[in-house]
Amino acid sequence: MIVLHPMKKGEEQDTYDLIIRVFREHVAPVYSENGVAKFLSMLSPNRLNEMKNGKNSFVILAKNQSRLIGMLAVINKSHIALIFVDSNYQGKSIGKRLINEATKTCLKRYPELTAMTVSSSPNSKLFYEAAGFAIQENELDEDGMRFTPMRKPIRR
Predict the structure, then answer these.
(1) For residue 154, which of 116, 128, 123 has the smallest C-alpha distance?
(2) pTM attached to this predicted model
(3) Which of 31, 111, 116, 153 would bridge 35 by S-S if both were Cys, CB 3.0 to 4.6 A apart?
(4) Average pLDDT estimate for 44-69
(5) All domains in the chain, ordered by first residue
(6) Can you point out the beta strands (E) in the chain?
(7) Cα separations (Å) of 76 from 28, 55, 66, 118?
(8) At 83, is the secondary structure helix, strand, or coil?
(9) Would you give the DSSP letter of residue 8?
């Protein structure tokens, strides 16, 4: 049974390891060498801890029994900064469940919110479109990190 819960103290390293493993397999191949280095430099277990405890941020984990299989981090009240699902669990609605849970959490914290946003890597655009996000502008490239700004209206 898959359970979602807020990231707790002590889960930062396992979460970081999941992100790095899935990033290297699925995202790094579409980034330049500089993009990979920039992404990796922005992330650490300590940074995840900061997001988990932030005023305008949080981290949600998905577990199958005790095994970590997915994660999602929101920053700036409603921007999905990170979402990674173990390769063996992709295509099983884990990502959509994480987005739905994040949306509920955002609305609880900020009832006035009207949308969620994400900067999608090139290989994730179809996933986000299926989850209700729409492309807001053409793909951008910041130091080798390629992404497409996307937005999803929140329906109450």
Answers:
(1) 116
(2) 0.94
(3) 31
(4) 94
(5) 2-111 (3.40.630.30)
(6) 2-6, 58-64, 67-75, 79-85, 115-120, 134-135, 140-142, 145-153
(7) 25, 9, 29, 11
(8) strand
(9) -
Rounded distance between C-alpha atoms, residue 82 and residue 105, angstroms: 16
Amino acid occupying residue 39: F
Over residues 80-139, the pLDDT tens digits come to 999 999 999 999 999 999 999 999 999 999 999 999 999 999 999 999 999 999 999 999
Residue with tokens 């002590």: 10
* Residues 61, 120: Cα–Cα separation, whole Å: 19
- pLDDT at residue 156, as a whole number: 67
Other CB atoms within 10 A of residue 78 CB: 23
- The β-bridge partners of 61 are 5, 71
Q: Give me 26's structure tokens.
A: 């699925």
Tell the burial category of 154 from Cβ atoms under 10 Å away from its Cβ (0-12, 13-18, 19+). Answer: middle
Is 94 in a helix, a strand, or coil? helix
The answer to whether 143 and 107 have CB atoms below 8 angstroms apart is no
Q: Which two tokens stand for residue 61?
A: 């984990």
